Amino acid sequence: xxxTLLISFILLNSSAVMPTGIENFIFYQSNFDQSTKEESxxxxxxxxxxxxxxxxxxxxxxxxxxxxxxxxxDLEKDFPSIYIGEQSVEGSSAYFTVAAPWNEQRxxxxxxxxxxxxxxxxxx
Length: 124
Description:
It is built from 2 helices and 10 strands; from the N terminus they run αββββββαββββ.
């Protein structure tokens, strides 16, 4: 009886403490290397934001990408007219596509420099 109460208490408290459980993620991928068992960053999206995030594990830094500079796209301001459609992690970069009816872009975040670059896909 005491054991059941203790387990119930732990489960209730852990769900209250962790508001960003797996059910709140739309996309999550890290650069985990199966052979070395190491990873240095993860790219993710959550249900409560239309932006693209990078988490750098060594520095615990989180970077939020919402504004696509130079092409006047803003995921926060223009959502749901524009949104992120495809995401991936390859090597030291994270990629995503901004689906915009007038100017679709394929974007790359180069993690070592935290640099975002985008180019048109030719699909609109």
